[in-house]
Every structure is written in C-alpha cells, then in structure tokens.
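Fill in residues.
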C-alpha cells in the first residue's frame, strides 16, 4: 500500500530481508564475532536476548557468513525437542536417514559428525533456536552431545539461542555441569538511539527510499517505546508508513506514531 506512495521498490522492516542487506549494529557484529570464534574452537556457545532482539537473525547471518568448504550448518527450532527428536532432526539436517531408537541414534550421530570432520574436513555447526523451551531431559543431554573420544575432543560446535531467562536456567545449581561447558556467551540488548536511527535509515535505503521519512523526534519516541528491540521498531515503523500513506502524508509525524502506539499498547 505505501510502497508506491513513498517510491519504494520493496517493503522495509520485514523479517525476510536478505542476509546481505541486514543492518549490523555494534552488538550484532560482536555477537557474530563471538559465534564465529566458538565455531572455530568447536565449542558450546549461548546467545540470549529479549523477544524480537534478533537472535534468530543472528543465527541466519552466521549461516551465511561461515565458509561452506569448512562448515556444515544445521538449524533446529522445535519446542518439543526431546533427545530422540534432536538426534533425528540433526541427522536429517546432515542429509542422513536416522536409524533406530535413542541409543542407536546417538551412536549414528557421533559417527556421522566425526566422519564429517575427519573424512570431509567439515565442522558441523548445530544451532538450536528458542532454547528456553527445552525440557530438562534435553538440557541434560547437552553434556553428551559434545562428548567425543572420552570427552577429550569435539568435531562440532553447538549454539543455543534463547530468551533472557535461559541464561538464568543454565546457571542454576543442577545445570552447573552444562554451564561449565559454555565457551562463549553473549546477550543481545536493545539498540542505542543512534543505532535505531541508523537502522531505520538503512531499512528505508534497502527498500529504495533515499529521503528521510522519520524526523528525529519521532525516532526518539520509537526508540523509547521499542527499547531498541528490532522487532518492535519494525512494527512501529511499518504502522507509521501505512498510516501516513493512507492520509497522503509525505513524512511521518508524531500524530501518526501516536495512533500506532495506541494500536499496539
């Protein structure tokens, strides 16, 4: 609806933006660097953040950044990820047909991952999203997933991405053996005001709009309401664009934002 009105060639503030066009904030760049470091070391990494902070986007960015000649990336997102489901899904992701029940699946998984590393020269990266939904049995299984050769070597990297409370869960007393295995951890907080402004301008530019549509005072209010969380910024900005286009406005004003804030409150 608003694309033609504002002279855009594609819709801004969408989740399916190409990885090559993502805005890399300072936090995103640091988070990506830590994940790449953990992949190089073939260890366990933890990424946490509020809903909409960009955890899944960061995992997608990592997938597109790693060298496919050195790494094989598998992404898992399943709220019912039991140990059996994990091994089956991971094997499917590795283009291997799962065989048998849990004991046989474990053995098959370790053999395949080891073969990828030793015979093909590929480090497997298993990324589990929405990790805050993992049940206790799956959390306890994490110790064994990385246990190769009497726990003296790992041919793979494991990444867990979850909401903020997931970090607290792992740091409880009965999760200590798992937390001790964490090589890298990073928390995605909201963007600063300057980053939010740059993010909005970047989104508009990628969409083909080269003129500023959001005045500084409107961006400041968006930042305050969204607390720098990209998903909420996207919601507010798209709403403002629709509202302004429907009224024939060339710029987003405070009244447009106020109407959208009332809708999302």
């Amino acid at each position: 609806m608003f694309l033609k009105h504002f002279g855009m060639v594609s819709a801004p503030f969408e989740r399916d933006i190409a990885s090559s066009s993502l805005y890399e904030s300072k936090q995103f760049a640091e988070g990506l660097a830590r994940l790449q470091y953990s992949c190089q070391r073939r260890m366990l990494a933890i990424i946490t953040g509020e809903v909409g902070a960009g955890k899944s986007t960061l995992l997608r960015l990592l997938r597109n950044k790693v060298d496919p000649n050195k790494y094989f990336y598998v992404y898992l997102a399943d709220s019912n990820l039991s140990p059996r489901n994990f091994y089956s899904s991971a094997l499917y992701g590795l283009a291997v047909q799962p065989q048998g029940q849990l004991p046989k699946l474990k053995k098959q998984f370790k053999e395949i991952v080891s073969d990828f590393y030793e015979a093909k020269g590929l480090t497997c990266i298993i990324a589990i999203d929405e990790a805050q939904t993992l049940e206790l049995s799956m959390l306890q299984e994490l110790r064994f997933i990385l246990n190769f050769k009497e726990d003296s070597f790992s041919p793979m990297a494991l990444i867990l991405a979850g909401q903020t409370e997931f970090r607290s869960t792992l740091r409880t007393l009965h999760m200590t053996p798992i937390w001790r295995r964490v090589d890298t951890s990073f928390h995605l907080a909201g963007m600063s005001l300057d980053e939010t402004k740059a993010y909005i301008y970047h989104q508009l530019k990628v969409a083909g709009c080269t003129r500023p549509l959001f005045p500084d005072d409107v961006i400041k209010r968006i930042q305050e309401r969204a607390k720098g969380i990209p998903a909420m910024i996207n919601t507010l900005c798209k709403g403002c664009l629709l509202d302004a286009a429907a009224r024939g406005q060339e710029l987003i004003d405070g009244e447009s934002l106020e109407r959208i804030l009332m809708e999302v409150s």
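The first strand starts at residue 44 and ends at 49.
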